[in-house]
Amino acid sequence: MLSRIPFPLRVLLSLLLAWGAALLCVALHTPLPWMIGPLLVMALCSMAGAPTASWTPLRNLGQWTMGAALGLYFSPEVARMVGSLWWAIALSVVWALLLGELFSSWLYRRTATRMPGIPARQLRATTYFAGAIGAASEMTLLAEREHARTDLVAASHSLRVLVVTLSIPFALQWMGVQPLPDLMPPAIRTVDYAGLAWLAALTLCGVGLMLRTGRPNPWFLGALGVSVGLTVADVQLSALPVSWVNAAQLVIGVSLGVRFRREFLRAAPQWLGSVAVGTVVLMLVCAGFAWLLHWATGLPWVTQVLGTSPGGIAEMAITAKVLQLGVPVVTAFQVCRLIAVLLVVAPLYRWRYGAAD
């Protein structure tokens, strides 16, 4: 009977449940309540077999909202400061590629004897793209072209993002990390609805361009690119209402949580266990690398942790925004890493292992 619930009603019920979870997390003073509350309740309900659902247009609007909001931090002064960190960003890109290689090799060695039903070449492609520290949808698409097990690749990236998104904010709260001094505030803090309309129109044009050219993560990166460009040029149109930002976090949390269906746990528990263990190790190693960057750049360690962590762009940037931990630096590090991984991993795989037949 639950499976017969119309899709619009499932979406509405999911949103209401997520909203209740967010309010509960606000009352409990958890970190990132508007994203973590919905993410947790959706993941638990989905794995329990509840008819949860996420509507893609809402998720897209959430990503557009966050991209536009984060771009407002790139004032001319902040942009110059971030530009001066090009060498640190380049190091973090190389670091991410190296970690992906090591994680992939470890996954292959760990699963080769435990999953004998998968041919060696297919398992190699599966572990390679599952271990790369990139976005789930793009890595799954690249894996499909090499005839990998796309279900395992998608599950790996979904679980990695879930573990990182839940672990780091709570760890920072447990450590007593406080918001940083307001050294990198947004260029504009007030909402001007005429300016907001222009900001929406221009950022949506950026989204449209990204969609037409087939770029990855178009709703987030398209809005972010236009918003950054306007702010760097000192064009101050409007801030985004807090309610919009909270709603964006909610729908992004829902879209992450509904991926974890009951079948997700049944598919390959040993595979998921390996990914979870590997993700924890990745976070610890990245925390050490962040300390080295902190020592070399003088920027706060917590900012570098978010910038180099193996999480998703939107999730880590949202964490930086809500906890006030250096949004522009975190966003720049994460965006550059994503672009580099998307450009490099597929050619590197074919160079090392040859193209698929």
Structure explained in plain terms:
The protein is an all-alpha fold. The protein has a single domain (2-353), classed as Na+/H+ antiporter like fold (Up-down Bundle), CATH 1.20.1530. It has 16 helices and no strands. The protein has helices spanning 7-28, 33-47, 56-71, 76-83, 86-111, 120-131, 136-145, 150-174, 193-212, 218-232, 242-257, 262-267, 269-297, 301-308, 313-323, 327-353. Helix 3 (56-71) packs parallel to helix 10 (218-232) and helix 9 crosses helix 10. The termini are far apart.
User: How many angstroms does the end-to-end distance come to?
Assistant: 44 Å
Q: What is the ordering of alpha helices and beta strands? A: HHHHHHHHHHHHHHHH
Work out the radius of gyration: 20 Å
Indicate the mean pLDDT. 86
| Number of distinct beta strands | 0
How many structural domains? 1
The CATH class designation is Mainly Alpha
The helix fraction, in percent, is: over 70%
Q: Largest sheet, if any?
A: none
Shape: globular
CATH topology tier name: Na+/H+ antiporter like fold
Number of helices: 16
Strand content: under 5%
Overall CATH architecture: Up-down Bundle
- Structural class computed from helices and strand pairing: mainly alpha
Unreliable spans: none
